[in-house]
Amino acid sequence: RRFIMKKILLILVMLSTGYAFSQSMPPTFPVEMYYGCTYEKGKDIEDMMKVGEEWREWQEENDPVGRENYNAWIFTADFAGASSHGTSMWFGVANNWENFTKSHFNWVRNGADMSKKFEKVMGPSNCLGHLMGVMFPTRQAEGWEPVDIRPVFTSLCTAKENTSLMDFNSAYSKMNAFLDAGGMSDKVAMFNIFPVAGQTSDYDFATMMVLRDDDAMGELATLMSTGGAAMQSSLFEPLQECTQNSLMLSSPLPGNTSFN
Description:
The chain is α+β, with helices and mostly antiparallel strands. The chain has six helices and eight strands; from the N terminus they run αβαββααββαββαβ. The chain has helices at residues 2-22, 45-62, 97-110, 112-119, 165-181, 214-236, and strands at residues 29-37, 70-79, 88-94, 129-139, 150-159, 188-197, 205-211, 240-252. Strands 1-3-2-8-5-7-6-4 form an eight-stranded antiparallel beta barrel. A hairpin with a 7-residue loop joins strand 6 and strand 7 (205-211). The longest helix has 23 residues, at 214-236.
């Protein structure tokens, strides 16, 4: 019970922090992750994209909310320091909870044949777990064009005791101002994801930093190596402890309508 209350309080604090940034409640999104996944022998991401294209066609014909309300990416481990990442991860985002639940239960009831096609490449039985969470932005970016791969930095974090709304608000505001001053405006987006169900390790939230493209990652690396990393540590180490810091490569499934 105490654990659940801590989760609720953390979500309220972080959502309120986002509110302080934007002066209006930031959009929140339901997400699902099949994580710790491995491919069937002889299969790879190219096979996954082919099945993904078939799934998009299935969506168009069978999903009550249609393809435009649910976007999905395959995350491939690049520099990943934890076995829970496996080889790959399915990362799906819906535009609201109503569409998420309609789409999910339609899949549960009617997606068996399509699911068998995924199982031949990489399906739920190839993964450690299936997580549902709530995602909200701590830094937003707009106007991105579609690319085949985006770098994504991820961490699993636990908030330290006695951290406050104002602590997180101050830290994110200063970090975002630093990134803007360093030329990273609209080149990096950041999100926090709170697990709701399907969590198999003990953490409060996952952080995700998405780079617009390869060049943006190079610019960020230069910025972080010339004072950014020290600043980030000074701002966030007093507030949270993070592990499993990894670099993933994000590839959009065919038919995505969002490119972040």
